């Protein structure tokens, strides 16, 4: 996509009184699903459009997990991510940002959630009760990169703070549902706690006439 086409899209948004950022967000989602279908990719795909240049970046996210059918426990055994943050001034900090972002997104998918009692009292209001991701429950992240310097600043750098976070939640969610799909499960609300996954498995078996 050229910068001229990007300007044309922004002009169209203004003429139709549509928020241009919302329009581009939806375009990114549509391009991602189309690319994944055309390329016959099993893993979720993320597409980002540079708001200034119109350049399109495609990322395939590859999480692998194992689910214990007897307990509902989900273990993330492998996570591969490819990002493009432009030129890196401090590679170690960039890698740390990606690690932390991935961990945060995985935590949202598998463990984190606000739990309330029957009286409306928040039960997860402190770090003693809130399920945070821990290093011992995460695999070694396998990171790779493409390097496309940003044309909108002299250093050619891009933001990296949320790159891992945005992608990992959806990637893990897709991996879990894909693993459960042979049972006929097509959707499950996050977080994928053992109790929630186990209940979904039992319900799916019961629906098929199996043992619950």
Report on this structure.
It is a single chain. The protein is α+β, with helices and mostly antiparallel strands. It is built from five helices and five strands, in the order H-H-E-E-E-E-H-E-H-H. The strands form two sheets. It has a three-stranded mixed beta sheet, covered by helices on one side. Strands 1-2 form a two-stranded antiparallel ribbon. The longest helix is centred in the middle third of the chain and has 20 residues, at 91-110. The chain starts with a helix and ends in a 5-residue tail after the last helix.
CATH homologous superfamily (4th level) name of the largest domain: Aldehyde oxidase/xanthine dehydrogenase, molybdopterin binding domain
- Strands across the major sheet, in which order? 3-4-5
CATH class of the largest domain: Alpha Beta
User: What distance separates the N and C termini?
Assistant: 52 Å
How many domain regions? Answer: 2
Main β-sheet, in a few words? Answer: 3 strands, mixed
As a percent range, the share of helical residues equals 25-40%
Counted beta strands: 5
How many helices? 5
**In the CATH scheme, what's the topology name of the largest domain?**
Aldehyde Oxidoreductase, domain 4
Order of helices and strands: HHEEEEHEHH
Strand content: 5-15%
CATH architectural designation of the largest domain = 2-Layer Sandwich
The gyration radius over C-alpha positions equals 20 Å
pLDDT under 50 segments (min length 5)? Answer: none
Give the CA-based shape. globular
| Mean pLDDT over the full residue set | 83
Structural class: alpha+beta
